[in-house]
Amino acid sequence: MSIRLIISLFLLGVGVGSPWLVGNCLDGRAAEKPCGSLFDGIATLANRVKSHFRDEAVSSPVASEVEAISSERMPYPLAGKTQRIMQGFLSPPTGEKVSFYSDGRVPTTPRTSIITKNSGERLRGQFTDLGLELGDPVYMRVFKEESELEVWIKSRHELQYVLFKVFRLTHCAGKPGPKLREGDGQAPEGFYFASSGSMRPDTRHYLGIDLGFPNAYDKESGYTGSDLMIHGGANAAGAFALSPRDIEEVYTVVEASLEGGQKMTPINVFPFRMTDKRMDQAWEGNPVCLDFWVNLKEGYDFFENVRQPPLVEMASGRYAFLME
User: Structural domain tally of the chain?
Assistant: First the structure.
């Protein structure tokens, strides 16, 4: 009998209190505080539950193994991103800086004077069609895997470089990967600059442009080598070979740019076209030089995004890129 009495009193209480409960639910302002407290409590409880299961998952050896496999299969982490590039625009790199730049005078010979004069006449019409002039600033990119050399030129009246021509290498020494030591059969990779003193009018390779290997990065890394050039002929013992006609054109536009006021012609050498897709493949292959290639891609992406070659320095053992 007492149990029935208790139940009856409970139901009576609910019935009497129903209008008050319903009123609060219909009045959003009156319900705001209790509802907010309720949802806060639910969220806190949910976070505790998630944290509990997450801790258990981390402690599980099977989960750890799955996480390790997932990290190995993770795509190239900088794909489609330029945060590190933009950071370079906004703040200078830390660490000791080493400049790559120098200056000098363009060496000439009677033979090269005739070659560049004739080559310049051939090229003048192509320059005019693109709104360019012989002597405008030049930027070059070399892709080892594709055996291609790109020549980009910037009009003095424009901010961005435009692609002038793509030359096919007749031979490229070695395979993708940096040059480590003298005689290893490898062509270098990295960021190099041709000054007027880099021009080689009297090389045994017909004509040549010295890359300046080893640069500051190569020296700090302990890499060795000498006389590595873009040159004429079929033998790439000197790094990158072009046909005689092609080296005449490349030599002519670089010499003209230096004589026209460009102190240094940037020459960026990449193992391959460093697209996100190609870097995904490299990431999966996990070569020993992967970290080096990731650093190179920062410079590659810089130009792809702004069509301006970066100002290259060295900081904390890595290449660092800034807007000129």
Answer: 2
